[in-house]
Design brief:
The complex is a heterodimer. By secondary structure, chain A is mostly beta strands. Chain A contains no helices and 9 strands. Chain A is about 0% helix and about 45% strand. In chain A, the strands form 2 sheets. Chain A has a 5-stranded mixed beta sheet, with no helix packed on it. In chain A, strands 2-7-6-5 form a 4-stranded antiparallel beta sheet, with no helix packed on it. In chain A, strand 3 and strand 4 form a beta hairpin. Chain A starts with 8 loop residues before the first strand and ends with a strand. By secondary structure, chain B is mostly beta strands. In chain B, about 0% of the residues lie in helices and about 50% in strands. Chain B is built from no helices and 11 strands. In chain B, strands 2, 4, 5, 6, 9, 10 and 11 form a 7-stranded mixed beta sheet that branches. Chain B has a 4-stranded antiparallel beta sheet with strand order 1-3-8-7, with no helix packed on it. In chain B, strand 4 and strand 5 form a beta hairpin. Classes of the chains: A mainly beta, B mainly beta. The interface between A and B is medium-sized, with 28 and 33 residues.
Chain lengths: ~110, ~120
C-alpha cells in the first residue's frame, strides 16, 4: 500500500474550518484514501474514505485532487472535541483492513 | 448498543507474569485485530483473525498469543517472553477483512493500558 505524508501538527480556532492535508504521491488506481482520528488515550475512530470523488458525511468532507496524489480532510466547524491525532491512510485491494498503516498522523489542536 | 469492549482498562503486571486482555464485540463482525501503540507512535499489528478458529501473525507477534474460539471474542495473552510489554493495546473488528474489496471500516475498542512494574 502507498505511504502517506502528513504534517506533524496543526492548530485551528474553534468554529473555523480545519483543513488537514495528506500527500500520497505513489497511490495506485485501486487504492482508497481513509481518514481516522484518535482522541488521547482512546481507540481510533473512522471518519471517511474515498477513491477519487469528493466525499462528505456528517463528520467531515474529503477532497481528493484530480491526480489523486494528495487529499484534504475538512472539518467545517472545528470544536474543542475535534482535538485529536488524524491519520491519513491508503489501502489497496488484497491487503486486509487490519493492515491499514497508522503512522504518526497530524496532531490537530483546536483552541478557544 | 453495538460495539467493542476491552477489559481491563488499566492493568499492572510484575515481570515474568502472563496477562490476558479481553476483547468482546457484539457487532457480528467476522474479522478481529490486536494492535500495540507506544507513546507518540502509530499502531502496530500484533495478530488478526478473519474467521473463528483461525488467526494470523501480524508484524510484532513475538511474545503474544491469541485464540478465536467464538466469533465475539478475541483475547490476547501477553506472555513473559514479550521483552517490552508496557504499552497501550487496542482491539478492533471489521465486518470482513476487506481483502477482496477496498472498502470497509475498522471499529476500535477503548484500549487497555498495560504497565509492567
Amino acid at each position: 500500500d502507498a505511504k502517506t505524508t502528513q504534517p506533524p501538527s496543526m492548530d485551528c480556532a474553534e468554529g473555523r474550518a480545519a483543513n488537514l492535508p495528506c500527500n500520497h504521491s505513489t497511490i495506485s488506481g485501486n487504492e482508497y484514501v481513509y481518514w481516522y482520528r484518535q482522541i488521547h488515550s482512546q481507540g481510533p475512530q473512522y471518519i471517511i474514505h474515498g477513491l477519487k470523488n469528493n466525499e462528505t458525511n456528517e463528520m467531515a468532507s474529503l477532497i481528493i485532487t484530480e491526480d489523486r496524489k494528495s487529499s484534504t480532510l475538512i472539518l467545517p466547524h472545528a470544536t474543542l472535541r475535534d482535538t485529536a491525532v488524524y491519520y491519513c491512510i491508503v489501502k489497496g485491494r488484497g491487503s486486509t483492513l487490519g493492515r491499514l498503516y497508522f503512522g504518526r498522523g497530524t496532531q490537530l489542536t483546536v483552541w478557544p | 448498543d453495538g460495539g467493542i469492549t476491552q477489559s481491563p482498562k488499566y492493568l499492572f503486571r510484575k515481570e515474568g507474569q502472563n496477562v490476558t486482555l479481553s476483547c468482546e464485540q457484539n457487532l457480528n463482525h467476522d474479522a478481529m485485530y490486536w494492535y500495540r501503540q507506544d507513546p507518540g507512535q502509530g499502531l502496530r499489528l500484533i495478530y488478526y483473525s478473519q474467521i473463528v478458529n483461525d488467526f494470523q501473525k501480524g508484524d510484532i507477534a513475538e511474545g503474544y498469543s491469541v485464540s478465536r474460539e467464538k466469533k465475539e471474542s478475541f483475547p490476547l495473552t501477553v506472555t513473559s517472553a514479550q521483552k517490552n510489554p508496557t504499552a497501550f493495546y487496542l482491539c478492533a473488528s471489521s465486518k470482513s477483512s476487506g481483502r477482496t474489496s477496498n472498502t470497509g471500516e475498522l471499529f476500535f475498542g477503548e484500549g487497555s493500558r498495560l504497565t509492567v512494574l
